[in-house]
Design goal:
Two copies of one chain form a homodimer. By secondary structure, chain A is an alpha+beta fold. Chain A folds into three domains: 2-144, Molybdenum Cofactor Biosythetic Enzyme, Chain A (3-Layer(aba) Sandwich); 153-224, Alpha-Beta Plaits; 229-381, Maf protein, CATH 3.90.950.20. Chain A contains 14 helices and 16 strands. Chain A has helices spanning 2-7, 22-34, 54-61, 70-82, 130-141, 163-169, 171-177, 207-217, 229-239, 254-260, 278-285, 289-295, 300-314, 361-381; strands spanning 14-18, 39-43, 66-68, 96-98, 102-104, 113-118, 121-126, 153-158, 182-188, 191-197, 221-224, 244-248, 269-274, 318-324, 339-345, 351-356. In chain A, the strands form four sheets. A five-stranded mixed sheet of chain A has the order 13-12-14-15-16, sandwiched between helices. In chain A, β9 and β10 form a beta hairpin. Chains A and B meet through β1, α2, α6, β9 and α10 of A and β1, α2, α6, β9 and α10 of B. β13 of chain A pairs antiparallel with β13 (269-274) of chain B.
């Protein structure tokens, strides 16, 4: 929600979580309202269980007059009956409405949202279940917020470079701009986001700094805003009429899952093999027994044969082969923990790369998969 | 970190995020210290880039005397040189130390942590990069916190039941206990956690309520604490000497990836096929062309053939076959969006289940994978 609000030119001053305690909730409400914000979003604690106390705290804090929505209560009963369940009496609380407040329809659940206007602050009280919170947000709130502006906040997304190296390369740009606009570096194992906004100086045009950044380190940026590398790769493959299939050992399905998380990826993704055991590598991918015995399952040679095997067996344009040691055990002096080989097999572009990524198992799977996606991006689209 | 602290009998009163602004950081520090907490953990903003201002805010807020650790600075230089990089001058800030503070060694990065003692509050300032934060936590902080108590906080993890149904079934237990201990329901699409603590009444023994819960709804709970369903399934398969392989269509590798996220899962997981295209279903899994043409790729029959196919082809004890429509497009009147068939093929237990899960694509993949894992748990371990 924070990200969404920033894109609507709303500065998120504070995000705070407190305990499910009436006193704690009210103390925080008072302290937040003292700052006279334009908006205050409250989530969680509208459900029917005993620990859902937010609604009552809001009611007593703002001294709201309660009413009962018999019609909604009857609708709820029918909903439960349709699912073959007797409605628990505790759900009665969800049919409570407040005078002088706007109740916000919940398209995905039973707990309605509440809009309270207090002095000059617009307060939205929403369920904590993300899918319900989002549904109410888009249904009732989205249209009354300031219009989205693509020129007031820009996030550039980099992969394959560290935060400090990126900052060093951008040194001159930072010196020139950091007093005029807000520039934040947000690093994770899946890349570095550079977030720039002109909220304090709305007249400044951000396209100029973006241009400067692109001319110096543009190659590292795969996208902007909320774009994901997997989305960029799926779009790029579509545009270039290329199909993809993958053979994964240590990433264990993560690469396939990054790709298939993108809607309509089925138009470019033929399929994948999670070749965890050597028998699967040999039987499904035609990796030679000799090669495994001679070089080990974690080797450049096996990665290449996996990539070639999946491409040939599925008749795709690009095949990826990955083999490595994600840990936490399995390393040796020759082949340390974190070692991974990523091979790409295509009509023109055959490559294999070796990395040693010192990180925990899940991060290792994710980072390795992202390197593979970035290899596709670099060799096939960014020429 | 919050979860970790609660397991150490530390009540987390508040979690707050503020902007990278000196004034905002100091206002928040003051307001948190007014409450005289025993501990205050601060993360983020110790890096070398211009937006990393936390260290300086801490220094001026607590009026700390600065010193320079020439030895550490030289070590940093060597570290960078080893990676073939000239150390940016901005990294100089990371060799700053403070008098009367304990500097905390960072085993995974260059920014040291800081321990400040202020009145009766112990303050830890840590990097925001999770891997570095955790490393310093375990290296320098873990051993000085109160001893972990398995009897003061218990989280029971359920799957396959809604929050309100679970609360309804636990109605009598809740009535009896809710005034003595804290009981929170934490729902997500991957289950409902029931978290119970006796922090306000430390003399109360939680084993009694846990026993009551288990006797009423124990079947729904797959584990406790931070145990994950995928871990429980991998452990169960190991214990029962069973091997597993999976054939996924709509889940697109997510099920394989849940399994392979567990260390040493290679001892029970043979491999998986992400059978996104019909050609992969037919060529790798022996799904009959006829069956697809007659029933469609999303059908009970295809799910069963996928499960049988992967089990036979990989010679495993249990095969899973999944086919469905994760969306956001692809539904029809007969086969609505969210429809999914999950088949399990084993020596004795053959089952196929149909679900319609109305949720977004990624949640659909995750929930479907979790249902499959839970089917393995129910049919093979919990007899």
């Amino acid at each position: 929600m924070g990200k969404k609000l920033v894109s609507r030119k709303i500065i998120v001053e504070k995000i705070v979580s407190v305990r499910d305690q009436d006193e704690a909730i009210k103390f925080e409400l008072q302290s937040l309202l003292n700052k006279k914000p334009d908006y205050l979003f409250i989530t969680g604690g509208l459900g029917p269980t005993h620990d859902d106390i937010t609604q009552n705290s809001i009611k007593t804090f703002f001294k709201l007059d309660e009413d009962f929505d018999q019609k909604y209560y009857d609708t709820l009963k029918v909903k439960f009956a349709e699912r073959g369940i007797d409605m628990p009496e505790s759900n009665r609380s969800q049919a409570i409405i407040y005078k002088n407040c706007k109740m916000l329809n919940n398209p995905k659940g039973t707990a309605k949202g509440i809009e309270v206007n207090f002095n000059n602050t617009k307060i939205f009280v929403l369920p904590g279940v993300p899918i319900e919170m989002k549904a109410i947000f888009f249904d009732s709130i989205n249209s009354i917020l300031p219009v989205e502006s693509k020129n007031s906040l820009i996030t550039l997304r980099a992969f394959g470079i560290s935060e400090s190296s990126l900052a060093k390369k951008m040194n001159k740009i930072l010196d020139e701009w950091k007093s005029k606009v807000e520039i934040a570096f947000l690093p994770s194992h899946l890349g570095v986001d550079v977030r720039i906004n002109n909220l304090v100086n709305p007249k400044i045009n951000l396209s100029e700094i973006v241009e400067s950044i692109n001319s110096v380190v543009g190659n590292y940026f795969f996208g902007s805003g909320s774009e994901k590398l997997e989305q960029i790769v799926v779009d790029g493959l579509k545009l270039n009429n290329l199909t993809l299939s993958v053979a994964e050992s240590c990433t264990g399905g993560k690469l396939a899952n990054f790709i298939t998380s993108v809607p309509d990826s089925s138009s470019i993704f033929i399929g994948g093999i999670v070749a965890y055991s050597n028998s699967v590598k040999m039987n499904f991918l035609d990796v030679a027994k000799d090669t495994i015995e001679k070089n080990g399952a974690v080797s450049e040679e096996v990665a290449i044969q996996m990539a070639n095997g999946i491409r040939e067996k599925t008749n795709s344009d690009i095949g990826i082969g990955i083999t490595g040691i994600s840990g936490p055990t399995g390393g040796s002096v020759d082949k340390p923990l974190g070692l991974v080989f990523i091979a790409i097999s295509g009509k023109q572009n055959n490559k294999v790369k070796k990395f040693i990524l010192k990180m925990d198992r899940v991060m290792h799977q994710e980072t390795t998969s992202y390197i593979a996606l970035n290899m596709i991006r670099r060799y096939y689209f960014r020429k």
